[in-house]
Amino acid sequence: MNEVYDISHLLAGVMLVTSFALLYQERIASVLNAFAAQSITLALAVAWAAWSQDRPDLFITALIALTLKGIIIPVALHRTVTRLGIHREVEKVVGVGIALMVGLALTGLAQALLMKVAHGPLSYASEQLALALAIILLGFLMMIVRRNAVTQVVGFMSMENGLILAATGARGMPLVVEVSVAFSVLIALFVFAVFVFRIRERFDTIDIEALDRMRGDRR
Amino acid sequence: MIHETYQFVVLIPYAAALLLVALPGYRTGAIVNVVASGLTFAAGLWLVGGERTVGHYAIVDEFNIVFIAINTLVGFTTSIFSASYIGHEIETGRLPPNFVRFYHAMFQAMMGSMNVALVANNIGVMWVGLEIATLITVVMVGLYRTPQSIEAAWKYFILASVGISLAFFGTILIYLAGQPALGEGVPAMTWSLLEAAAAKMDPAILDLAFIFLLIGYGTKVGLAPLHAWLPDAHAEGPTPISAVLSGLLLNVALYALLRFKMVIAGQPAALDPGPVMITMGLVSLIFAAFMLYQRRDIKRLFAYSSIEHMGLIVFAFGMGGPLANFAGLLHMAMHSLTKSGIFFAVGHIAQAKGTQRIAEITGLSETHPRLAVAFALAVLAICGMPPFGVFASEFLILTTTFAREPWLALLPAFGLLVAFGALLMRLQGTIFGEPTGAAHPVKASFVPIIMHLLLVLTAGIYLPAALVAWFRRAAELLG
User: Fold this and answer.
1) Residue boundaries of the structural domains of chain A
2) Using an 8 Å Cβ cutoff, are A158 and A38 in contact?
3) What is the ipTM of this complex?
4) Per-residue DSSP letters for A142-196?
5) Chain B contacts of A198, Cβ < 8 Å?
6) Is A92 helix (H, G, I), strand (E, B) or coil?
7) Considering the entire predicted model, what is its pTM?
């Protein structure tokens, strides 16, 4: 059984590395590529879980991750960015160095938290859950330290990747949940699409900073 | 089959949503909306009168039936208010008629999703229901498409997605905790089985899960410091949505939190959720009470008041025990009714004055006397003035706390007094004084406001023994 876990941990580890890669990209195009790489790795991880746990239903989740998040969304966002001709460079709230340091701290935190459950019957899941939690937290971090709406969307979807990884790590979790996660991602995308277009319509930019002027009480 | 009545509270709203998508014309849409909400309310009442069942898919016990009753009732009255509110918005051109079709369909879909979250006997399905309801409100908050409403919706969306993710991670952890006792698959996600098997679960995982669930669902309840989305979302969306947000969605999130508390309470070795909830509740209560003084927008003012009351309710449930739980449930019901009533009044006031700025809303007693009286009564009720029901529930929370932890009772009492001062100060300014600015006539529908006020008043004067017995059984389930 060990190689089963070794491979799933390897794939989860690669996802974590791409999460860090997302944090230090300078251009939006490379952010999208890094996200696509993460989603494809997720698809592999889920497919591996489906095969090793003998749960064919998980292949559907893997397929969704591959086609939707690995291909369709990155391509669509690439096009949007090119078409709108906006902000080719990633705008940062804090520098790359600080973001990476905070990211490391969050990864350590995730490991420390899950260490508590690393004994007993659930030890098999704790490693993957720790990696998944680190990916989720790095997704948050990305949403916080990036200003552009597109990069925030990517941060959000990277967080969803972490969630799906966690859900597949929990052995035997019913399909209901995986479908619902995919479903919620779809809805979320719909919502995001609406906003990206509306923000464009209103401000001629999808820079979140333009929205900050509206903060506080209505005048 | 009668024992499947719960299906109606879910199916009626979803069927109505599909119908409303197809129906052109906002007037027919509004009527269908009211009728569907009325039918859902009838189904809710039927459920209250029916037997309590724990099935494979759904759970109907004394505890969640309280939430279902409030949910369907306020959904019904809000749909009546919404009909007159939206009519005015279309006349003044703030909303294009084709948006309204979408609005009505979304309203029903949201009610249906909240009911799914409430009746589901599965932690995953509950999560899905709550998330769909939340995402719909995000879209609704951005409905006016003004820069402010888009900013509010964006902020709401970002914070809600944080909540969504953390709550889901907590859900996975609960599933893992239940797995050794219940086996793989659906049983380890079923409420009724989880509650029964809690004693066999690993306390360390339950602790970890509860922290994630508290932060995740706590974001939706609007607990400080995770409340930042709440005032914006209330202020910028259409007022019926503010009423539903304050009166219902916060409750559904609270329901999720309390259910998980029931599971965790079954394992004595796990962390006691009580003190954590007491702390978060008190911080929200006192923080929001002070924030009330600086508000310039009337809907924002009452959004902070919702944070304050949710804080008090979480505090009461944190105290625990049959009496405090009873008081918490009662206060939750009273707050839902009163606060949505206030938003009904505020919606018409904002339409009459053409603004939401408190400074520009003055002298209502001269220009709109009936609206002024309804608004004043509702605000006095939420301030906790006798003889309204909010007074009774707040009094009960304070006295039970005082009996057990005298010093602790000073904090909520202090917060309530601070909030009382702020609301009374604002009320005086809006009702009396020289009328300034615009004063459009509004075809306000007073039925929902009067219904809510009468219910709150009746609850304050006389609580029927059957209702007391029901709430007491629900409180006992909470432990």
Assistant:
1) 2-212
2) yes
3) 0.83
4) HHHHB-BHHHHHHHHHHHHHHHHHHHHHSTT--HHHHHHHHHHHHHHHHHHHHHH
5) 142, 145, 150
6) strand
7) 0.90
